[in-house]
Fold these 2 entries.
Entry 1:
Amino acid sequence: MDEGLSRRDLRIPDAGRGQVVGLYGGSFNPPHEGHLLVAERATRRLALDAVWWLVTPGNPLKDHGDLEPLARRLAAVRKLGAGPHHRATAFEAAYRVRYTADTIRIARARSPHLRFVWIMGADSLTGFHRWQDWEEIARSVPIAIIDRPGDTLSTLSSKFAIRYARFRVPEHEAADLAYRKAPAWTFLHGARTAMSSSTLRDLRRG
Ligand SMILES: Nc1ncnc2c1ncn2[C@@H]1O[C@H](COP(=O)(O)OP(=O)(O)OP(=O)(O)O)[C@@H](O)[C@H]1O
Ligand SMILES: O=C(O)c1ccc[n+]([C@@H]2O[C@H](COP(=O)([O-])O)[C@@H](O)[C@H]2O)c1
């Protein structure tokens, strides 16, 4: 599992005291311009100091049949060139965790001096209530959802959006999200791209 990964790859990144870090988890199999758009929009609109791209050893809800090795996906994320305040890490592999609830618990315990926001695309929110301990996640960190073609409506009628409707932060107050006590979430609109890893994999297969 950890083949080809260096100690740096497996370490939890750090940031200065009080800084706001966006946790952006994904399979990134492979990464693409849609991922960049998400990370950049989150950075700008949430006034993030850093984004940590958490390259998962394997999404617990996905089939891993065509999942590229972790080291290769991590290298590909770095190659995207997201910018100096972005860090790509595979620390979930080092801690032998797959579930985001565990990842967030570890990040918060190891870095109590930072503020975290969980970042995800609209399609992820649609099935968020199937994630392990999803309500614990909702109560532990603010969440930012970035719009994705085809998922706007299903997102806003998702179990999460309905249950936590009164904790939604208006988009024009998104820069404040990291300072709100969870549960707190916002939905960020803007330019969208339909790009997906599955499209790229299909193209590669020809
Ligand atoms: N084009 C996009 N617009 C908005 N969010 C996106 C986009 N592509 C991916 N995301 C989000 O980025 C995160 C990581 O996505 P992932 O690595 O699974 O890519 P994907 O393109 O959705 O992959 P696949 O096609 O294999 O399902 C998820 O939160 C997903 O919602
Ligand atoms: O914790 C869970 O139960 C869970 C279920 C599905 C997905 N996730 C996380 O969601 C992130 C996005 O996954 P993916 O495969 O859609 O890119 C990634 O960090 C996964 O580990 C987490």
Entry 2:
Amino acid sequence: MGTQTTTVTAPGRKILTLDSSHGTVYREISSAPPRAATAEEIPIIDLSKLNSKNLEDHKSIALKIKAAAENTGFFYIENHGIEEEIIENAKESVMKFMAQPLEVKQKVARKNQKYWNGYFEPAGSQANKSESRDHKENFGWQYSPNLDPLYDHLPHPIASSSIPANILEYIRAEDEIWDGTLSCPGFKENAITYYRSMLSLARRLTKIFALALDLDESYFDHLTTYPGADLAFNYYPPVSGDIGKVKENEAMAHDVGLGSHTDLQCFTLLWQDMIGGLLVLNRGGEWIKATPIKGTIVVNIGDFLMRMTNDKWQSTVHRVEVNKTSEPRVSMPLFFGFNFNEFIGVLPTCASESEPPKYEPLRIGDWNYIRLNQSHNKIFKQREEAKKKAMVEAMM
Ligand SMILES: O=C(O)CCC(=O)C(=O)O
Ligand SMILES: [Fe+2]
């Protein structure tokens, strides 16, 4: 994420600790309880003209996306074209899969896989080290050409020799995980059908994103042939009572369904059920609710796209509250990024003489690694810690 400044508007203030592409950062935020988002903060964008033959229709969607991406970095899409039945089947399968005994789910535990595809047990992750562990379970997988509709014409499983070598070295799929899910009939089929629809929608949307960035509609096409396209089935069980805070950091610890973070790739398409709990940190440092709206998918900009746009588009911090309802909550995000082998820097339309590129081109396949290992950048760490000290002093 970028180095945005925040204005605190609400009664109290506090400091939020976050991982970023530069290492740990501190942000001063409002301590007011989350409030409903306004239609300007998280707009609903109608995609019914997404497949129209008229470029002007695409441009009019692009204009709305541009405004949302530059503002909160979050928006809803409606009339996105994914059939309700595909979504419902996937959701039902998540519910059935998660209802199985732990030892059955652990047959596809991520910790037994080389590349961490598969199942994460309850509280098996902690997205933000200054908050509680994540009160959720998860089943996730990474991009596989075998699941991609673009390669349906090839014999399956697709021979490694059919995939360019410089892409193959970054593929982190483990297609055998599906064998471990066969205890749950229909899960594999429903999950893959959902994945394929979301992947196609993401590809389609990158064309509109290109227009929104004043580029030709096909500008990103060659970057989406083997995309980073990882899917997560998040399952937030109902939680009651006081639940394991991070003891060593009691003052800042906050119980979460999923800790405060930004998404790493270009953008995320997130279907959520009607339970609610997703919170977004707006530009003013206030938590606002991305309240579920039937028939929509939430879209948010990720760190890499923010970088490509020279920080014009916002990769926004979000988190999920602990599920205090009596029903489990399910969300099913697709994290979408460009081909692993490509070097990408700041887009030509996002830099100028007065606003030179802030970032060097880098290889997408190395991005996650760089992003996740930045917390060891010592100079940056010292600077941020001094900043935090000044913030704390200013509050006293
Ligand atoms: O469950 C949600 O609503 C958000 C999930 C999310 O932010 C993520 O998986 O990165
Ligand atoms: Fe996220």
